Amino acid sequence: MTYVSPKQRQDAVFTAEQRRAAKDAPANNSPSSTDLMTPGAAAAYIKIEASTLAMWRSTKRYPLPYVKVGRRVFYRKAHLDAFLAARTVNSGGDLQEEAANG
C-alpha cells in the first residue's frame, strides 16, 4: 500500500472539486469570473496606489470585498463600482448612502 500524505489527499480532493465545478460551469465566460482585477489594476481603476488597497485589506478600513485564490488577491469591477458609488458626495456634502437612508 502506498502512503498518501494529508497534503496529497487534500490536493486530490481539491482537484476533484475543481473538476466538478468546471463540469457544472456554463460554457460561456460568466461576468462573475471575467471581471476579476489584480490589486494593481483595481487600484488604477479607482485611482489610488496598490499599497493603499493592501493597507485597507489588512486593516479592514473599508468594507471592500475581494477574492482570494491561494495567496493571490483579486477585486471584482462591480464591487469597485459600488464602493465608488457609496462614496459619491452630493452637493450638500452628504454621502449618497447617508442621503438615501436619512
Structure explained in plain terms:
The chain is mostly helical and 102 residues long. The protein is built from 6 helices and 3 strands. It has helices spanning 6-24, 31-34, 39-45, 50-59, 77-86, 96-101; strands at 36-37, 67-69, 72-76. Helix 3 packs across helix 4 (50-59).
What's this entry about, in short?
With about 100 residues, the chain is mostly helical.
Short key terms for the protein model shown above:
three-stranded antiparallel sheet, 3 strands, single chain, 102 residues, elongated, mainly alpha, 6 helices
Average of pLDDT: 77
Per DSSP E runs of 2 or more residues, the count of β-strands stands at 3
Helical fraction equals 40-55%
* Strand-pairing-aware structural class: mainly alpha
How many alpha or pi helices?
Answer: 6
Radius of gyration computed on alpha carbons: 19 Å
Write the element-wise H/E pattern from the N-terminal end onward.
Answer: HHEHHEEHH
First and last CA, distance: 68 Å
Query: How much strand content do the residues show?
Result: 5-15%
Can you tell me the overall shape? elongated
List the uncertain runs.
26-31
State the major sheet: 3 strands, antiparallel
The largest sheet has its strands arranged as 1-3-2
Q: Please, what is the oligomeric state?
A: single chain
